[in-house]
Every structure is written in structure tokens, then in C-alpha cells.
Amino acid sequence: MNLLLATAPTVVFNPTLHYRYTDVGEVLGYLQRERPDWRFRFLDGLVVPVESAILREIVQGVDGLVLFSDVATAPATRRLATLANQLVADLPILVYGKGPLRIPAYFQRPPFTACHVDGDQEHAILSYFDALNGDGHPEGVVQVGGPPAYPGRRLGSALWGWADLEALPLESYRNLAILKKIPFELSIYPSKGCHRGCHYCDAPRHEGDVDRRRLPDALVAWTTEAVRRYRFDCVQLHSTDLAADPEWLKEFARAFVKAGSPFPWTCCVHGNTLTESHMDLMAASGCQRIGLGVESLIFQSNRGFKVSRRRLSQLASYARMRGLRLKGYIMAGLPGQTEYDLLDTYLFCLDQGIEPRVSTYTPFQELEGLDVSVLDQMDLERWDRKSFLVESQAMPVSTVIRMLVRPPDVEDWARERLAELTRRTG
Question: Reduced to 3 DSSP states, what percent helix, strand and coil does the chain have, rounded to the nearest 5?
């Protein structure tokens, strides 16, 4: 069987490359391992923004098309699927990603023939195309016009794939990293699953709510070779909370040091569970930066939407003592948040030595259950977690855009703007 994986060409505000390695590369690695006699190819509309190039590949002969989509790329994905269907009327077209998990109704119609809705995506894709070959039934996949979906399956970590890096356009990703002025960073799932259920987060429905982790020795060995061979600058251990399993973290640190601390790495953790002992392990095993979900502080208060001001200050002190950098992920546009809150959070992070990174609160939960006729009338391209902008008296769009783009004078501007607002209100 000859399968083409693709993403639709579209204009994006600020592309996140992590998911190309994890949700595309690791899926490809799993499929290649499980079906070595099948042929797979990936065309990324992010770096090949030409629909005709993807369509030409399709018309030359593929047995199935697999499209990766989030909510913001849903319209472009549907357009690409429609054009593919017009070229090859009976082509199986399966769509997966956070888009189908958030707004399944949008994708559960022609020209798509199947939509991943439950369980691990790589197993769902494989089970669908196996079923087309007469082997079993699809699991975690809704077949358009077909019977109800069988439940999906969560795979043990030993069954996860390692990213097929040969299939990814790495030099294009390297150039994108240069354009964004960020390191050329390999991302990998060391763990999947989160039980916290923050209403704005996709992790529980995408990864499940049970924490599953790769074996540390295998993780270090594979990643070491990938960094050496493809010359990555560093590695993002792409986990919702790397420190959620302290025993695993100890084993990872042991395996990493035993291997000679072979690569620099970064991670994300939950600010209310991170401890000094976690930081000791991370600092001793090559960690360069820890990401924290700050979301927002409340102006002139110790309280925060997720982490308190006092707690952030404490974590910043712990990190400085160990030579670790902290990155604080801030959301603009949270319900009840004011411009005061956003500016104060940004400046507090800077003053504590925490690198602030602003994105936009995107209320995906408001899309759930909407009829497809309503979804078709919406500007879904705005729902991208990076530039979802809503003008309000409490939060001017001009302020949010400046915080997103981060011009060289943003710190001075933020201090002047907060001082101006404070003077106005006395």
C-alpha cells in the first residue's frame, strides 16, 4: 500500500514545529515499523505551500491520503481533500490531529472518508487502512457514512514509534528556525497523558489522561543518535509535565549521565509540582530550560490564574541557583483578564529572570457541539492558539499583538504602558 501523509498549505501566524516531529514524524515511524512493506511519504504544506505539488503526487498514484489538521487549518485541509477527491473520486482520505478531536462534525462528511476521534492516532490510522485491506475493523475512527466507531486504543510506550526523520523536510525546518530566531530543535514525546483537564488544553483528549512514559535508556540512546546524525541544536522533551513521575525523572537522569550527557534539552512542567529536587536532577542531566504554564497573574495581587506570584518568585530563585533558565508561557485574553494583568505578568516574569512567551487564549470548548453549518460560517483560521484576537475594553488588540510579536522595545513599552494605565486610574 502506498500512503501519502500531508498538511494543507496555509498562512500561519507563528508555526510550531514540535508537532511535525511528534504527531507526524512519530506516526510515520510507527507505521513504517508496523508495515515495512508499505510505502509512506510526507509533504508538508507549511514548507511546500503549493497545492498543485501535493495534488500532482496524488494523481500519480496513491492508495490513500492521510491529512494532519488542527482547528485553524481545518478549512485549508477540507479544500485540499476536496481537490484530491475531484482528481481521484474513490480515494480514501483520513484526517487526524487536534482539529478532528475538537470539531469532529466538521470532518465527518465528504470529501473525507474517515476521521480519527479516539485513542492513539497512529494505531487508528493503521487500523483503518488495515480494514480497507480486509484485516479487522477500524478502531478510534469514524467512517463517513459508515457504522458507529469502535473505541480507540492507547498504546503502551514500548509500541510508540520513533520519528522517521528521513521523511521530514529537516532543512526547511532548520531554515524556519533561523527565520524565527530559535534553535533547530528536535521534539520527542518522552511521555503522553495528563489528568488535569484544563478546559483550554487538548492534551487529555489527544494523549489520554493516564501518564505513559518511554523507557529512559531507549529514549536517551535514540535521541543521542538523532542529534548526532541530523545536527540538532537541542532537544525538546515534549511532555505536558516531565516531572509528574519523579521516579522516571531519576531514571532518565541516571541514563543521561551514564551516556555522557550527550545533548542539551528543554522541557515543560507544572509550576505547582516542580520541586528543588526535580531541578537538581534536571540541572545534573543536561537540561537547559524549563517551561512553566504561568497563564496570568492578577494585578496587585499574589494570586494567579494557575501559579501564584510568590510561587513563581520561588521557582525563579531555585532555577538561578542551579543555572537553569525558565520560560513562562503567558496567555492573553483569558476570561476576566485585564490589560493590567497581562502587562504586569509579562514584566514580573522579566524581573524574575523568567523568559516570557505570550500566546492567545483560544476558547476551543466553545466550538464543541456546534453544528457543521455554524462551523462553516466561522473564521476557523483565527483559532490557532497564537493569534486569536478579540477586541475588548479590558484588553486592546494592539497590546496583545505587540506582546506576541515582541519588537526590540517591548520591555520599555510595557513598563511605560503599565505606568500610564496606573496613572489614569490613580
Answer: 45, 15, 40
